[in-house]
Design brief:
The chain has 14 helices and 20 strands. Helix 2 packs parallel to helix 3 (139-145), helix 6 (209-225) runs parallel beside helix 7 (237-248) and helix 7 (237-248) packs parallel to helix 9 (285-297). It has one domain (56-363): Metal-dependent hydrolases (TIM Barrel, Alpha-Beta Barrel), CATH 3.20.20.140. Strands 1, 2, 3, 4, 5, 15, 18, 19 and 20 form a 9-stranded mixed beta sheet that branches. It has a 4-stranded parallel beta sheet with strand order 9-12-13-14. Helix content is 29%, strand content 20%. It binds N-carbamoyl-L-aspartate and zinc ion (2 copies). N-carbamoyl-L-aspartate (NCD) binds at residues 63, 95, 153-154, 180, 278-279, 306, 308, 323-325. One of its GO terms (cellular component) is cytoplasm.
């Protein structure tokens, strides 16, 4: 049977919102037409009441923690959190226990995701065994098992030779290399960025070059090997400069940025609160401005959350000893909508594009567009109701966010994956049109 989402606000090809009906059939968007025109007897009709209907959000950088760290998150709780945040496709990082460095772990992740049955989960596999930077994994076998790219996220690949070999192998398989850029010799266990906060609390600071040195090195290696090279969680002006140059000279380099690096600087850290500790760290206001500019001009291709849940116990270990990372799924869209779109700084279609069409294009996914024939991965968003971020309401197991108490608009209220509603805010109950017989 077909489902009709009626009276939705859909962005047209000029980026203007239009009242439309969207018909979903067999998991596919079967048709889009003027509001009221598709409703027919016997169909399930979902009244969107003018709320914004967009392609399901895509997040190419997330940590689901399973296998091995189920106390932080499971593939099921992470998938539910993603669905609640409006995401329909997520790509998960291999820094699990065991590390996703064998076909068996790739299969396990895919199996658990299927069991959860919520969002589409695309696994990355590790570049090196156990992410130790010593020995390459079996790229061909990992690809065969379903991995979509290679990354040692959580740590930088320290050896240039190792990275070059990885890129050669990945290029031969037409697979991307996704890099956490961090030179360990420049970091030395520092928990926050260089700057006023580190000085005030007598902490070592992480310098910007620790990220940018890897970005520069890897762009040269990508040029030499021809691989698609994707830079994780860009956070510095210097990295952006290098990515811009790489793109100009035709290197296949793409990049992502996280909401927190667009919204917060190290000056905003209120005190030694580990909800503000993440890797890369919050940098200077100047870096934040550079990230925003790069996202707008396309130097940075997409937004990702780097959803990184940790338990309360782990995060209670203080600024030096607690793990890096914050949760991201359930606040990403409302944060960016409220801070940038509702204030008139960004156009709504730009924000949507950087979270849907652009990641799909970069990674070659059949997703990210709302058009007839596309998979019915959809997200309905209430742009008007203001609500405070309350970590106790999160579907993720993680409570580690610096955004608690922020008043936001732009909350997702329903999410569909392949036409199946996988999450709804509760007041979005679908209604059957009882006027007639089934018209499938
Ligand atoms: N981003 C983080 O602060 N932490 C990530 C690792 C990573 O993304 O590098 C994690 O796995 O917790
Ligand atoms: Zn990382
Ligand atoms: Zn990460």
């Amino acid at each position: 049977m077909a489902v009709i989402i009626t009276n939705a606000s859909v962005l047209n090809s000029e980026g203007q919102p239009e009242r439309m009906d969207v018909e979903i059939k067999n998991g596919i968007i079967a048709g889009i037409a003027e509001a009221g025109s598709l409703k027919a007897a016997g169909q399930e009709v979902i009244e969107a009441e003018g709320k914004l209907l967009i392609p399901g959000l895509i997040d190419m950088h997330v940590h689901l923690r399973e296998p091995g760290f189920e106390h932080k998150e499971t593939i099921e709780t992470g998938s539910r959190s993603a669905a609640k945040g409006g995401f329909t496709t997520i790509a998960c990082m291999p820094n699990t226990k065991p590390v996703t460095d064998s076909p068996e772990v790739v299969s396990l992740v895919l199996g658990k995701a299927r069991e959860a049955g919520l969002v589409k989960v695309l696994p990355y596999a590790a570049i090196t065994k156990n992410e130790l930077g010593e020995e390459l994994t079996d790229f061909a076998a990992l690809k065969e098992a379903g991995a979509i790219g290679f990354t040692d996220d959580g740590v930088g690949v320290q050896s240039a030779q190792m990275m070059k070999d990885a890129m050669k192998r990945a290029a031969a398989l037409n697979m991307p290399v996704i890099a956490h850029c961090e030179d360990n010799t420049l970091v030395e266990g520092a928990p926050v960025a260089e700057g006023a906060f580190a000085e005030k609390y007598g902490l070592k600071g992480i310098p910007n070059e620790s990220e940018a040195i890897h970005v520069g090195r890897d762009i040269l290696l990508a040029e030499a090997t021809g691989v698609h090279y994707h830079v994780c969680h860009v956070s510095t002006e210097q990295s952006i400069r290098l990515i811009r140059l790489g793109k100009q000279i035709g290197v296949k380099v793409t990049a992502e940025v996280c909401p927190h690096h667009l919204l917060l600087s190290e000056e905003d850290i209120p005190g030694p609160d580990t909800n503000w500790k993440m890797n890369p760290p919050l940098r200077s206001r100047r870096d934040v401005e550079a990230c925003i500019e790069a996202l707008l001009d396309g130097t940075i291709d997409m937004i990702v959350t780097d959803h990184a849940p940790h338990s309360a116990e782990e995060k209670a270990k203080g600024m030096l000893l607690s793990p890096f990372g914050i949760v991201g799924f359930e606040t990403a869209f409302p944060l960016l909508y409220t801070a940038f779109v509702a204030t008139g700084q960004w156009e709504l279609p730009l924000l949507v594009k950087r979270m849907t069409e652009d990641p799909a294009r970069v990674f070659g996914l059949n997703a990210g567009v709302l058009k007839a024939g596309a998979p019915a991965d959809l997200t309905l968003i209430d742009l008007d109701t203001e609500r405070e971020v309350n970590p106790d309401d999160f579907a993720t197991k993680g409570r580690n966010t610096p955004f608690a108490g922020w008043k936001l608009k732009g909350w997702p209220v329903a999410t569909w994956v392949d036409g199946r509603q996988v999450w709804s805010a509760g007041d979005m109950e679908s209604k059957k049109d009882e006027a007639g017989l089934s018209a499938d």
